Amino acid sequence: MATAETVDLGPVHEPKEESIKVFKDIEHELKKELLHTRREYQSKNPAFVGRNLQVHQLMPNPVPEHEREYFQAVEELDDDQLAGFSSKDLVAVRVAVSAYGVHLFGKIRIPAMSDSGPAYIHFRAFDVPGGDEPAKLHSIHTEEKEHSDGDKTYRAIFTKNDPLEWFDT
Prior knowledge:
Elements lengths: L16 H26 L22 H4 L10 H4 L7 E8 L4 E8 L10 E8 L8 E5 L2 E4 L5 E4 L14
Antiparallel strand pairs: 1-2, 2-3, 3-4, 5-6
């Protein structure tokens, strides 16, 4: 498996034709997974139940409070707004090449959010150039960060200035 230690992650740059093709290959799955992940983290939060989240079944155990924080920045958005991005909203990418193929890290702007705050999703995709299979979504970045005072913050929505770095989850 490729890791930050075993491959070189290239510099941040604007998406080029190949990156846009990879994004288009994974776009449907990315949106589906994004909405699923938000539901998973927030379905027990009373503020979200009944909104356009299409919650079919509440999870049997309450969601820990910290998990709700991951999507707090977009809590006012419905599903269509949250997943209302397209290839034109792919603003930055980084690429790493391994023996297995190409690892694409991307930053997508959520058009319904103000650019002055959290409004970006980071994703990771994998592609085998020239292969018969379309690119595959690897993950959407969710961050758990421990601060010097021991406090932790959790997020899945990033700002324009947050760096696009290697992540596994």
